[in-house]
Design brief:
The protein is elongated, with a radius of gyration of 30 Å. The protein has a 6-stranded mixed beta sheet, sandwiched between helices. The protein has a two-stranded antiparallel sheet with strand order 1-2. It contains 7 helices and 10 strands. By secondary structure, it is an alpha/beta fold.
Length: 321
């Protein structure tokens, strides 16, 4: 029986709770916490790797509002020489294609394949001389899409080549390379964005858009983009021509799409899907020494012809490649 004490001063009766009544309350408060803790402990101890035990993914991000550092430019010290920025797609926590649930054991992720091709193309261009080269990444790190094309613009590059590898999921027979340029829709969207921008760093061919009305800015962007689109189409056709016989292209080898990395209004840009990583034969070739050398040689030849045409004389960029 509970002990009862009387408070004569105010006439009330107060019942003192016993331990038997307190224990259930403590149990009700602690039980949910104990159950959750045991579930977490069991998951960490017994769950296989990759099945949910790794809850937290830590990603290093640049300081808020700060620009990432620019990569090193290799090649001739003469700044008048043309500059190619080569972008190896994906990287860091973003593996790209080839590492999904359907990938077989030992499948190489797209980020590794593209870095190998980017390095091979860089080395080929540097060996031929006369062209400066910079890689957006030369290691396994993550870059936002806007940062990739942004590097080319900040370096005032003469050409931007973004290298990727396509995937068709479970269709292992799909194969072949594709070269993409910016679609008209993507071009129009970017023109509108830049024309309305208040960022003084947004400029076209040295003219700051902020100093002009929105109408004039839109015209400047449009004129610059028309020239850039024509140059991008030229390098795409040259890649197709120089790769004929050594590179297996798709039935429609040159296409257009609104890829973010192609939206630079004043740097000719192409996105080169070098093959299908979901195709074992394509993947094996693109990761082999011979395959990388063949890809680099054909692409380097196309780039040299492109710059020779732009300069009006082939001797200005060297004869190697």
């Amino acid at each position: 029986m509970a002990r009862v004490s009387c408070n004569i001063a105010n006439g009330s009766v107060r019942q003192k709770p016993t331990m038997r009544r307190i224990l259930p309350l403590i149990f009700l408060a602690v039980a949910p916490v104990a159950v959750f803790a045991s579930m977490v402990a069991a998951d960490r101890i017994y769950a296989p790797r990759g099945s949910g035990r790794e809850y937290v993914i830590r990603i290093e991000l640049p300081p808020a509002g700060g620009a990432i550092g620019l990569p090193r430019i290799e090649g001739p010290l003469d700044a008048s020489r043309p500059l190619v920025v080569i972008d190896a797609g994906h990287g860091g926590h973003d593996p790209g294609a080839g590492a999904g649930a359907g990938a077989g054991a030992g499948a190489i992720p797209e980020k590794t394949l593209t870095l190998g091709l980017a390095r091979a193309l860089r080395d080929r261009l540097l060996a031929g001389g006369g062209i400066r080269v910079a890689l957006t990444r030369d290691d396994d790190r993550y870059l936002a899409l806007e940062e990739r094309s942004g590097i080319a613009r900040r370096l005032k590059a003469d050409l931007f080549v973004s290298i990727h590898a396509d995937s068709a999921g479970d269709d292992a027979k799909a194969g072949g390379a594709t070269v993409y340029t910016l679609s008209q829709r993507g071009s129009s969207d970017e023109a509108g964005r830049l024309a309305q921008s208040e960022n003084s760093a947004d400029s076209i061919n040295g003219i700051t858009l902020k100093d002009n009305s929105s109408t004039v800015s839109a015209i400047l962007v449009d004129l610059s983009q028309r020239q850039t689109e024509a140059q991008s189409a030229t390098i795409a056709r040259l890649i197709l021509r120089e790769g004929a016989g050594t590179v297996n292209f798709r039935a429609r080898p040159v296409q257009s799409a609104a890829f973010v990395v192609l939206k630079s209004p004043d740097v000719p840009s192409v996105l080169y899907e070098a093959g299908y990583i979901s195709n074992p034969a394509n993947a094996a070739r693109l990761t082999s020494a011979a395959g990388k050398a063949s890809f680099a040689a054909a692409t380097a030849r196309a780039i040299r012809v492109f710059f020779a045409r732009e300069a009006g004389a082939s001797g200005t960029v060297g004869a190697g490649g």
